[in-house]
Design goal:
1 helix, 103 residues, 95% helix, single chain, mainly alpha
Amino acid sequence: MTEKLTTLRSERTAIASFKAALSNFKSDMGSCKERLHCQVTLATLQLQCLVHCSLEASKHTLTSVSAVEEASLKKLEEEPRKLESMRIAQSQVAEEVRQGKVC
């Protein structure tokens, strides 16, 4: 009987130890979940920040390129007018040469 009582006490102690270990494990699992959630949230925020910064940089680049292209387009629009006025001036000089007005 004393042996059985000692065995039962030993088993009760083992069960209590097992319950404590299981409780610690559950607590650690909750803590792991919370850490994982925080890490995922932080990674999400970092990605959103990178996306926002990239978008702003793209907008700035697009605006700069657009301004350069607009300036180039205006310059190209002026070129035909300049060429036409040069052609007219050369035609007038050629006509004056034919008429003998220019030596």
